Amino acid sequence: MEILVIIRLCCNCTYALLYKPIDRVTRSTLVLHDLLKHTPSDHPDYPLLQDALRISQNFLSSINEDIDPRRTAVTTPKGETRQLIKDGFLVELSEGSRKLRHVFLFTDVLLCAKLKKTAVGKHQQYDCKWYVPLADLVFPSPEESEHCPQVHVIPDHELEDMKMKISAIKSEVQKEKANKGQSRAIERLKKKMFENEFWLLLNSPAIPFRIHNRNGKSYLFLLSSDYERSEWREAIQKLQKKDLQAFVLSSVELQVLTGSCFKLRTVHNIPVTSNKDDDESPGLYGFLHVIVHSAKGFKQSANLYCTLEVDSFGYFVSKAKTRVFRDTTEPQWNEEFEIELEGSQSLRILCYEKCYDKTKLNKDNNEIVDKIMGKGQIQLDPQAVQTKNWHMDVIEMNGIKVEFSMKFTSRDMSLKRTPSKKQTGVFGVKISVVTKRERSKVPYIVRQCIEEVEKRGIEEVGIYRISGVATDIQALKAVFDARSATRGSALWPDNKDILVMLSDMDINAIAGTLKLYFRELPEPLLTDRLYPAFMEGIALSDPAAKENCMMHLLRSLPDPNLITFLFLLEHLKRVAEKEPINKMSLHNLATVFGPTLLRPSEGESKGHLTLASDIWSHDVMAQVQVLLYYLQHPPISFTELKRNTLYFSTDV
Length: 652
Fold this sequence. Notes:
The chain is an alpha+beta fold. It contains 23 helices and 17 strands. Strands 1, 2, 3, 4, 5, 6, 7 and 8 form an 8-stranded antiparallel sheet that branches. β3 and β4 (109-115) form a beta hairpin. α15 packs antiparallel against α16 (543-555). The longest helix has 36 residues, at 2-37. It is globular. 29% of the residues are buried. The model is unreliable at 3-7, 65-71, 488-492, 606-616 and 647-652 (pLDDT under 50).
């Protein structure tokens, strides 16, 4: 009896000492989360509550890491414990085709498997495709990788097309749910969405991750994120520091190990949004503004830069890159970026040392040879980022601290076209007002930006797609506005000063300035009045009717709008001619510029926008198709268009 009492007392003490404190923090975290929900963002206690919630969440995360479920292990026939360290879905390039694999990293072996197809109700199992003992695993050097087969990259426009299809299906699912549609119809749509998302997951990765077995066999995975590649490489290299022995698994041992994978796995579902529960967060849609301030903690001087990644459609994509800060231990970038979010939930920051040694540069365009100095990730909590104010934070990585600030703008807010209060500048001012003031056919800002891009940016990879530094774009915006506002006065900036500034500026900032100019027009370049007609015209199935309609719509544009549009059109065609080098096809350029040139102003757009998550809504798809139609059309002459106006009007 006394022994039972002692045991009960011990259990109570263990509960009080170990479980209760954790339980208290868990409950406090939930309370803090609810408090934040009901506290106005401008309340003085709001930032304090944010900090308290972040500290609580970080504490619980560290506890969860210490009680990692991966400690569950399988025992080898020799009685040794083989623990699962990491697992996840990766795309393998096998016999020239892409295959989705589930890869398992154990303490002494890397195993690549695929899930067997089983009948409904049957226990699912994995089929081992290959394994490499860590003692035999090596990573090929950049020089050795040169002899490996080149990775076939899927054209961007095909990936963007698929994103459009997925978003269109998402919209249909939401409409069916709102109208309480039949569950069968919803399930059919979800099945189609899964098929499309699976295709995207399989075909989007392009960063090679090569693994070589000392016995001669090599394997190639394709990843979408350098962060992910670094995680796998570091996990393997950490295990290889131990005294590992080479071995060969017997068929029975391999069967036991493969059989344990289903029970031990920590990643259960393919990372596609159609696998999410309805109550899971859909992520953020809109624009994330990030300022990368500085970094410290480097032990020696280096040439340093950062890249930013966010998740989109189930995988991570690199969205922005700072300048290289040369020969320093404390880089001060202070660069701002605007990153479009498409259902994003996480932001990753990677810090690199730039490689200038030409002998180490790999011929494979997708091979990143710069050294990762550190990497970190934060969750994009909608409650924390959806404020008007900047939120400053620090990511710690391998002893390095990167300081950054961020704020979020919802898609609804970012879509607004707001006329400028000062009509003396060029941004937010009607194009007819600007051309009349300048006595020009095409606004000066459009001519100069295009000229600079064609001079030194037409072969830049991702020109118009990659974000420019926001602070540089704002500086150019201010100069062009000032030039227009002080025209003819003693304060008017010399054209030479602007040209010198343009020649010194990063080319992506100049491309970004041009996009911003069109985005901030008080009404789109192709006008609010004609927007419904453009939507109807592009939907016509008869080629002759479509040609007549689309040309008539161009004739209907005011002269400054039409001349500027044709000027831009020919420029974009010249950019696309360099697609083998800059990776920007006509379709890519239509995707970037279509919504910018056609999206109606706020008063006209009511009824066009549906859900915030409809990044690729039906309207956006149509806007892209309109511009693509004109980009694929033979050269269009302003003179010829105007000459045919009378004939066309008579026919109608």
